[in-house]
C-alpha cells in the first residue's frame, strides 16, 4: 500500500461521488485521462477493480464499496493534520461542502457565505443541492459527500441543531370553493387534488404524516422538486398545497384556508455526520452560522 497516494484517494472519491470520470475530472479541474490513469494505477496497486464501467454509468464494485469509507477516513485524517498545522499559524483554510434544499428562506445563505469569506478568506465553500430533498442530503452526509447540510426532519443518526421554525399554510386559488369558506378539515381537503414535492422532501413528509394521523388519504397530482415554484402551479388551478408564507408573493391571487384539525410546521436544522470529525473549515462555517442563527 506504500504506492497509494492521497491523490489516488481524492480521485477515487471524486469518481465515486460524481458517478463518472468526466464529472470527476470537472470537479477536480483536471483532464479525464488523468483521472482514468490514476484510478487504473490505484486498482493495480490494490489488486481489485473498484468500478464497473459501462457506456451508460460508472458504479462501485463490491471492492470499491468496501474501500470507500476507508478512503474517506484517510483523507479526513490528512486534512485534520493539515488543519492542525494551519491552526498553529492562526489560519483557517480548506473546503467545506454544504448541502442545501431548493429553498431555505429561513437562512440568508448568500449573506452567510459572504461573511464567511470576509472572516476566513482561506475557506472555500461548495454548495450542493440534492434533488431527493432532505432524505437525499442526509444520505450524502452519511456517505461523506457533504460536510454540512441544511435539513428539515433530520434523522436521529446525524448531529443536528434546530435553526428556525415556520408554519405551513394551506393555499388555494382565489376562486376556489375553499377560499369562500376559509376553513376546512383534513378530510375536506382530501376531496381536492394537491400540488406537493416528491416523496423524500420534508414538506411532503410533514403533510403526508398529518393526513395519515387523521386516517385520511389525499391525492398528489403534481409533484415539483423546487418548492419555491409551487405557488405558480396552485395559481394555475392544478391543485391546492401547503406552503411557507415566504414562498408566496404578496399579490399572488392565492387565498389561505385555516385547517381546523392540524397545525403543520416546517423546521430547518443544520446537520453533520456523527461519525466524522468536522474539519477546521467546517467548524468555521458552523460557528458563524451559530452566531447569526442561535438555536430558537
Describe this structure in words.
One of its GO terms (molecular function) is DNA-binding transcription factor activity. There is one protein chain. The chain has 296 residues and is α/β, with parallel strands linked by helices. Among the domains are: 1-90, Orthogonal Bundle (Arc Repressor Mutant, subunit A), CATH 1.10.10; 164-267, D-Maltodextrin-Binding Protein, domain 2, CATH 3.40.190. 42% of the residues lie in helices and 24% in strands. It has helices spanning 6-18, 21-28, 32-46, 62-88, 109-119, 133-143, 177-181, 186-189, 202-213, 230-235, 280-292, and strands at 51-53, 58-60, 94-100, 123-129, 148-151, 158-173, 183-184, 193-196, 219-223, 241-244, 254-259, 265-273. Strands 3, 4, 5, 6, 7, 10, 11 and 12 form an 8-stranded mixed beta sheet that branches. Strands 1-2 form a two-stranded antiparallel ribbon. Strand 1 and strand 2 (58-60) form a beta hairpin. Helix 1 (6-18) packs across helix 4 (62-88), helix 2 packs across helix 3 and helix 5 packs across helix 11. The chain is elongated, with a radius of gyration of 23 Å. The model has no long low-confidence stretch (mean pLDDT 87).
Amino acid at each position: 500500500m506504500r504506492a497509494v497516494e492521497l491523490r489516488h484517494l481524492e480521485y477515487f472519491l471524486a469518481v465515486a461521488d460524481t458517478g463518472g470520470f468526466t464529472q470527476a475530472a470537472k470537479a477536480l479541474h483536471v483532464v479525464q485521462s488523468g483521472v482514468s490513469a490514476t484510478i487504473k494505477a490505484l486498482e493495480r496497486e490494490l489488486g481489485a477493480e473498484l468500478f464497473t464501467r459501462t457506456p451508460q454509468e460508472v458504479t462501485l464494485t463490491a471492492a470499491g464499496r468496501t474501500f470507500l469509507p476507508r478512503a474517506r477516513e484517510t483523507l479526513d485524517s490528512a486534512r485534520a493534520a493539515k488543519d492542525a498545522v494551519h491552526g498553529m499559524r492562526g489560519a483557517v483554510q480548506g473546503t467545506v461542502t454544504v448541502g442545501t434544499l431548493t429553498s431555505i428562506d429561513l437562512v440568508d445563505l448568500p449573506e452567510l457565505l459572504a461573511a464567511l469569506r470576509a472572516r476566513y478568506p482561506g475557506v472555500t465553500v461548495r454548495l450542493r443541492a440534492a434533488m431527493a430533498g432532505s432524505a437525499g442530503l442526509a444520505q450524502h452526509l452519511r456517505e461523506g459527500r457533504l460536510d454540512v447540510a441544511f435539513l428539515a426532519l433530520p434523522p436521529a443518526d446525524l448531529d443536528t441543531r434546530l435553526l428556525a421554525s415556520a408554519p405551513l399554510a394551506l393555499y388555494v386559488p382565489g376562486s376556489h370553493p375553499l377560499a369562500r369558506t376559509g376553513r376546512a378539515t383534513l378530510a375536506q381537503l382530501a376531496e381536492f387534488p394537491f400540488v406537493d414535492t416528491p416523496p423524500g422532501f420534508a414538506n411532503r413528509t410533514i403533510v403526508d404524516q398529518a393526513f395519515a394521523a387523521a386516517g385520511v388519504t389525499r391525492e398528489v397530482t403534481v409533484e415539483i422538486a423546487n418548492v419555491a415554484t409551487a405557488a405558480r402551479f396552485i395559481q394555475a388551478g392544478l391543485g391546492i398545497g401547503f406552503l411557507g408564507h415566504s414562498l408566496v408573493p404578496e399579490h399572488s391571487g392565492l387565498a389561505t384556508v385555516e385547517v381546523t384539525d392540524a397545525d403543520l410546521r416546517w423546521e430547518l436544522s443544520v446537520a453533520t455526520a456523527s461519525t466524522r470529525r468536522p474539519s477546521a473549515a467546517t467548524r468555521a462555517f458552523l460557528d458563524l452560522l451559530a452566531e447569526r442563527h442561535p438555536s430558537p
